[in-house]
Amino acid sequence: MEVTSNDRERVFDMFRQWGYFEADLDPLGLLRPQPQSELHIDGELAREARRIYCGTIGVEY
User: Fold this and answer.
1) Which residues contact 54 (CB under 8 A, 6 or more apart)?
2) Closest Cα to residue 24, out of 53, 1, 44?
3) How far apart are CA 45 and CA 8, in angstroms?
4) How do residues 18-48 score in pLDDT, each as one tens digit?
5) Mind giving me the DSSP string for 18-51?
């Protein structure tokens, strides 16, 4: 199945809108990521978007 630019845009838009709920942003581990029903999708596009929008972040001082 070939991925179209519309498919890619739709998946990435969902992660732009809802991905921060599933992001691991708390370095102390007190707040757990909250799964979102809108993001219960699978596939290469979803894995890529999840890596970009739901991963951890790092800051150096």
Assistant:
1) 15, 19, 20, 22, 23, 24, 33, 39
2) 53
3) 7
4) 998 888 888 788 988 888 888 888 899 999 9
5) HHHHHS---TTS-S-----GGG---SHHHHHHHH
Per-residue pLDDT tens digits for 2-19:
778 899 999 999 999 999
- The answer to whether the beta carbons of residues 36 and 48 sit under 8 Å apart is no
Find where tokens 């290469």 sit. 44
The conformation of residue 60, written as its DSSP 8-state character, comes to -
Amino acid at 44: E
* Total residue length of the chain: 61
Residue holding tokens 């709920």? 21
Locate 16 and state its tokens.
Answer: 């732009």
